[in-house]
Amino acid sequence: MKTEDLISSLAADTAPSPAIAVETRLPGLLVLGLMVTALSFALVLGPRPDLASALANPMVLAKTLLPLLLAALALPLVLRDARPGARYGLPGTLIWAVPLAVLGLVVLAFLTVDPAERLRLFIGHSIPVCLPAITLLSLPMLAGLLVSLRRGAPVNPSRCGALAGLVAAGFATAIYSTFCIEDSPLFYGIWYSAGIGIATGLGALAGRHLLKW
């Protein structure tokens, strides 16, 4: 084959790159996982009866908006991590604002709450529900993300899986927060973060085995 013919053949190859394949598949599989999560939530837990009035309180609204923001910022990081050599850019910097905001809310609550109430608010009454619920609600979305990311080529599969877990956990936590009546940052700032950490760790473990190439 002549050199010119080889170049023409390569140029005519329109097979999508791994990155494009990931970006094509990921939204649909993520939405599918989100639908499974939302249906499971509706059947087992459901939103709290006073949700509309509760969300008028900024402290309550924060426990839903902050996980949503975390997921929104982690999502482009997952896509970029699936491409060898891609930079995280602005989302990689902005995402650190979420844990800083959570820390700020925890400190503010600690300083403004009656010292006799701090431990009660920290322990709450729903830890045995909170941690498993966030983890389990994350799994359908995490599965969808990992399936789509297998079309990519992440340099660090564990990190890419962890970011997928972070996306899934962010959305799952926001959904769970509409059920939870623990409205103090002393509770949700600590225990929601623990649930997100568990799901992120599961994503890292799964990514290590499923995303290597």
Please describe what this structure looks like.
The structure is a single chain. This protein has helices at residues 3-12, 18-44, 51-54, 58-81, 89-94, 97-112, 115-123, 127-149, 157-177, 185-210. It is mainly α and 213 residues long. Helix 8 packs across helix 9, helix 8 (127-149) runs parallel beside helix 10 and helix 9 (157-177) packs antiparallel against helix 10 (185-210).
Short description:
The chain is an all-alpha fold. It is built from ten helices and no strands.
Distance between the termini: 31 Å
| Low-confidence blocks of residues | 10-16
Strand content: under 5%
Overall strand count: 0
- The ordered H/E elements are HHHHHHHHHH
Radius of gyration: 20 Å
Largest sheet: none
Average pLDDT: 89
Put simply, the count of helices is 10
What structural category arises from helix and sheet content?
Answer: mainly alpha
Proportion of helical residues: over 70%
Global geometry:
globular
Layout of helices and strands:
Elements: H1 3-12, H2 18-44, H3 51-54, H4 58-81, H5 89-94, H6 97-112, H7 115-123, H8 127-149, H9 157-177, H10 185-210
Keywords:
single chain; 213 residues; mainly alpha; 78% helix
